[in-house]
Input
Amino acid sequence: MSPSALNIDIGISATDRSAVALELSRVLADSYTLYLMTHNFHWNVTGPMFKTLHELFMTQYTEMWQALDDIAERIRALGYYAPGTYAEFEKLATIKQPSKVPNATEMVELLVKGNEALARVARTAFDRADKADDQPTADLLTQRLDIHEKNAWMLRSLLA
Output
C-alpha cells in the first residue's frame, strides 16, 4: 500500500490517512472473502431450503459486490493503493474460507460468523476513522455495519 506521488491535503494527516487506509484494506479483504463465500454457497446450496437460501445468498453477494468498489475507491481517495489480489486478501482477512462445500445449515452458520466478523473489523475501522475526523470513511463504515449486522440477524433467524 504505497502512498500517491501527489501531495494530498484533504484535512487529514498523512499518518491518519495511512492508518485509516490500512483498516479499510482489512474491511475490503474480509468483504471480498465473505462475498466469495456467499457466492460459492449460492452456487452450491442444496436441500429443502434451496430456493430460499439461493435467493437470499444472491441478494447478499450482489450487495457486497457493489460495496467492494466503494471501499476500494475510498482507500484510493485517501492516497493509497487498494489491495486486489488473493494473496493480499489472505494476509489481511480475518474470515477463512471452508475447505469443502458445507451443508445448507453449515453454510448459514458460516455466513452468520462471517458477517459478524466483518462487523467487528468494520467497527475497528470506524473507530480509527472517527479518531482521524474522517467523516466520509465513517459514513461508509456505518453503512457497512448496518448491512452486515442485518445480514447476520437474517441468517441467524434461519437457524432458530
About this structure: The two ends are 42 Å apart (CA to CA). The longest helix spans residues 14-44. Helices lie at 14-44, 50-77, 86-92, 104-131, 135-159. The chain has one domain: 14-159.
